[in-house]
Amino acid sequence: MSEAILYDLNDSAVITSKAGLLFDEVSQYLKSEDMVLLKNAYFFSQEAHSGQFRKSGEPYISHPVAVARILGELHLDTTTLAAALLHDVVEDTGILKEAISKRFGSSVAELVDGVSKLDRIKFQTQADMQVENFRKMLLAMAQDIRVILIKLADRLHNMRTLEVMPQEKQLRIARETLEIYAPIAHRLGLENIYQELQELGFCFSYPTRYKVLLKAIKAARGNRREVVGKILEATKQRLQEAGLDAMVTGREKHLYSIYKKMAGKHLRFSDVLDIYGFRVVVKDVSSCYVALGALHSLYKPIPGKFKDYIAIPKPNGYQSLHSTLLGPYGLPIEIQIRTQEMHHIAEAGVASHWLYKNKGSDTAMDDLYMKANQWMKGLLETLNDSSDSLEFLEHLKVDLFPGEIYVFTPQGKILTLPRGATIVDFAYAVHTDIGNCCVAARINGEITPLRTRLRSGDRVEIITAPAAKPNPVWLSYVATGRARSSIRYFLRTIQYDESIRLGERLLNQALHSFGTSAEAIEPSQWEKLARESGAKSKEALLADIALGKQLAAVIAKRLATPSGESISNIEGNNSITILGTEGMAVKFARCCYPIPGDGIVGLIKKDQGLVIHTQDCSAVIRIKDHKNIDNQLDVIWGTNIDRTFPVNIFMTVVNKSGVLARVTAEIAKADSNIDDITLENDKDYTTMRFILQARDRQHLAQIFRRLKHIGEIVKMGRIRNQ
C-alpha cells in the first residue's frame, strides 16, 4: 500500500467506543494493511466532521461509523467500508472529491461521490430532486454496485434514529423508505436490511397501527409459545429420522408482512394464523428435497402453497423450497428449506459476491452479481426514456413491486415478469424492437390478443409485423416499467418527428407571403433565431410551432425580415391542406368532430399543436367574437383522403324490442364502425348517441339513408358543439 494514501495521525485523534467495536468486528476478516486504510479513513472523517452534531446530540462521526458497521456485518471489502466512513464528507464539509481521491484512491472517491446528494443544485420540486439523486446514484451503481449498498446502510441507520426528526419529515422519509429503498434492498437480496427497513418504515408511517399490532403480537406470543415449541421439536425429530443433519429455527413473521396480509385480505388479527415460520438449513440440494418429503409426511401440505425457488430462483438470486403445512390445531406452518450457501445469499444477497470474492470463484455469486447489474442497467434505460421526474418514479415503483410469474420463451428460456404482466410486457422483456413490432402471440400454441395476462408456466411466442408500431392503448394494460417507458419513448419520438414536419408546413405557409421558404433561410439565421427563442435547434423550433409554443407568422417575420418590419404588414396566407395522415401533430376537435366535406378552421393551441374544428363550431365563434384570431389558420381538406374519421350522431327511437340491434346492423351494412354508444331512456322513447367512423359527409349521408328505413326512428341528426 502506498504511503501517499495514509492519513497523518495526530495526538488529538480519539477512537470512540463505537469505532472500536467496528475495528474489532472487521478485523476478523480484513488484513492488517486493510485495517490501516480503514483507521485512516476514520480519523480523516472524524476531523472533517469535527464540531458537527446529529439531531440526537451525538457527534456526527457516530453516523458514518454506524453505516460502516452495518456493511461490516455483510463482510464487505475495505474500499466499501472506507467509503462508508467518508460518505458524508464531500456533501457536508466542503472537502472535494479530488482530496478524497488523493488520500484514499480513486475507487473510494468514486463511491463517496456516487452516494453524495445533489444539495448544491436547485430543483423545482421535491420529486425532481429525488429523481436527480436517483439518477446520479443509478449511474454510479452501474459502474459499481457498492454505491447502493452504502446508500442502503446509510438509510437504515437514519431510519433507526428517525424519532429525533419532526413528524412531517419522519412521515416523508418513512414513506420513501417503504416505496423505494426497502424494495431495492429486496431486489438485491439483502433480506435482513429489507425487513428492518420495512419494519421501521411501517413504524413511522403508521405509528398507531404499529403499536396496536405490536401489542396483539406480544399477547399472541404467550398463547402460541407451547404450540410452536412442539412443532419445532417434531420437525427436528422427523429430519433426524430421515438421516438429515439439519439446522432448524422458528421465526415470528414481521409486523409489516402481517399488516399487509390483514389489509390486502381484509382480515382481523385473530384471522391471521400463520404468523410463525420455520427455516431448515441442510448440507446440499438433494437434502432439501429429502427434507421436504420428510416434513410432508409429518404434516399435510396445503394444496397450491408449494414453491420451488431452487429450480427457478427469484430474480435477486434467492433460492429455497417453500411449503405451507397444516400443523397441530389447524395452525398453518410456513417452512423454508435451503442449503448453507443459499442461506448466505438469502441473508446478504448481492453483497455475498464480496464475501466469496477472495475465496475463489463462485458461480452462483457471480451470476447473482451479473443479474443485479443487468437490472440496474434496465433502470437506467427507463430513466433515459422517461420525460419527467414523476414518470420515472412511476416506472421505478412498478419495477420494484413485482410479485413474480415465470414464463418461457419458445427456446425454453425462463423470463421473470411481475404478476399481471401481459404479452406486450413479455415482448419488451425479450427486446425493445420485438415489443415495438408485436401484433399478437401464441400462448401454449394458441393465438392470443396482446392484452392477455400471462400465468406462470406459459410458453409464449411473439408474432411481429415489420410495419407495426406501439399503440397508446397499450399503456392502459402493461405492467412493467420497461414496457411503459419504451412505449412512451416511441410515441414521443414519433410525435416529435411529425411535429417537425407540420411545423415546417405551417412556417412555409407563413413564409410564402414573403416570397421565400424554410429551405432558403441561411443556417446562421436559424441558429440565431433558435438561440433567441430558447430552442435547442432548428428542429426544436419547428416542433414548437406545431405545438403552439411559437406562432408561425412571428417566426416567419423574424426569418424573412431581420430588419424588424411590422408583423401587421404580412399579407394573406395560403391555406394548409389537411390530409388526415399527419399523425399526432394534428388533432380533430371532439366538440364538433369535423369530417371531410365540412368547412374547417385550424386553431393553434399551446402544447397541443394544430386542432381542426368545423367553421360553425362554438369554440371558433367564441374566438372570433373576442377578435382573438392570432392563433387561427386557414385550412382545407386534401383530396383522395383514405381514412375514416369519428363523427357524433343521435337518433330518437320508439321503445320497442330489437330496435338497437337493427340500428347497429344497418350501420355495419353502411361500412361504418361504432366507437361508442350511449342511451337515455324515458317512458316511450330512447335517445341513442353514437360515435361512428365515416369517410366524409357523403358517407355519413349514406348511413342516414339506410337508417331511414327503420320505422321506429322518430328523428336523427348530427351532434355539433358538444
From TrEMBL:
Superkingdom in the source lineage: Bacteria
UniProt cross-references to SMART domains, sorted A to Z: HDc, RelA_SpoT
Pfam families assigned to the protein according to its UniProt record, in alphabetical order: ACT_4 (PF13291), HD_4 (PF13328), RelA_SpoT (PF04607), TGS (PF02824)
CDD domains, sorted: ACT_RelA-SpoT, HDc, NT_Rel-Spo_like, TGS_RSH
PROSITE patterns in UniProt: ACT, HD, TGS
All copies of domain TGS, residue ranges: 403-464
SUPFAM superfamilies hit by this protein: ACT-like (SSF55021), HD-domain/PDEase-like (SSF109604), Nucleotidyltransferase (SSF81301), TGS-like (SSF81271)
InterPro entries xrefs: ACT-like_dom_sf (IPR045865), ACT_dom (IPR002912), Beta-grasp_dom_sf (IPR012675), HD/PDEase_dom (IPR003607), HD_domain (IPR006674), NT_sf (IPR043519), RelA/Spo_fam (IPR004811), RelA_SpoT (IPR007685)
Sequence ranges assigned to domain ACT in this UniProt record: 648-721
Record GO biological process: guanosine tetraphosphate metabolic process; nucleobase-containing small molecule interconversion; response to starvation
Domain HD: 60-159
Cleaved signal peptide residues: none
GO molecular function: GTP diphosphokinase activity; guanosine-3',5'-bis(diphosphate) 3'-diphosphatase activity
Family listed: Belongs to the relA/spoT family.
Name used for this protein in its record: (P)ppGpp synthetase I, SpoT/RelA
Protein species of origin: Nitrosomonas eutropha (strain DSM 101675 / C91 / Nm57)
